[in-house]
Hints:
The protein is α+β, with helices and mostly antiparallel strands. Helices cover 25% and strands 26% of the residues. It has 6 helices and 13 strands.
Amino acid sequence: MTRMPSSAPPVAxxxxxxxxxxxxxxxxxxxxxxxxxxxxxxxxxxxVDGAVRLGELGLYADVQADRAHHGGPDQAVYAIxxxxxxxxxxxxxxxxxxxxxxxxxxIDGLAVDDLEIGARVRAGTAxxxxxxxxTPCMTFQRWMGTDDFRAQYHQRGRTGVYFRVIETGEITAGxxxxxxLTPDHGVTVAATYGGARDRDLTRTLDSWARxxxxxxxxxxxxRATRHLRGER
Length: 232
């Protein structure tokens, strides 16, 4: 049985003014056959040179094969911390190149999993809003090539960040990744992932969303509905 990661929030919450660097901007390189129900996957992301236009549904030239579970306004952009890429390179004994975890943005110098849900970040000329952590799926495990990768990724509990697009624009590798706003409720992406059964954490997010008028990611909204009913 896989043990749930701790639901305790990380000690550090990324503050307004914190900066990192967009180390790579990645879009789909090729579609691949996959054993899942869709039969194909667009997880193969590779870095591109120059400015990439970002629209409301994501980076131009990117695509999602399983649109029931990937993509859409709540998951327009997926970013990971370069520290995590390096960690998995060490764990797997091979280089995990930029885009190798299926990310659109590889961020250097800022712990994206310690961003709060609802934080806003300027990347290039685009403005992004944190919506949710990534939930690793079996397609991801098959792509990474080990029988237990999903469980390992889950156990580490730093699965990267989904964003919605508040202002469209362009992003280029080397751009500053600047935190412009934080909601100050204290619930980070990592805490949200680890706290799937934490009703107090969910109530905090639900209260913040109602007071601020910011829509929760659809999966977090479903979680809030269950928890407020007293269900898991």
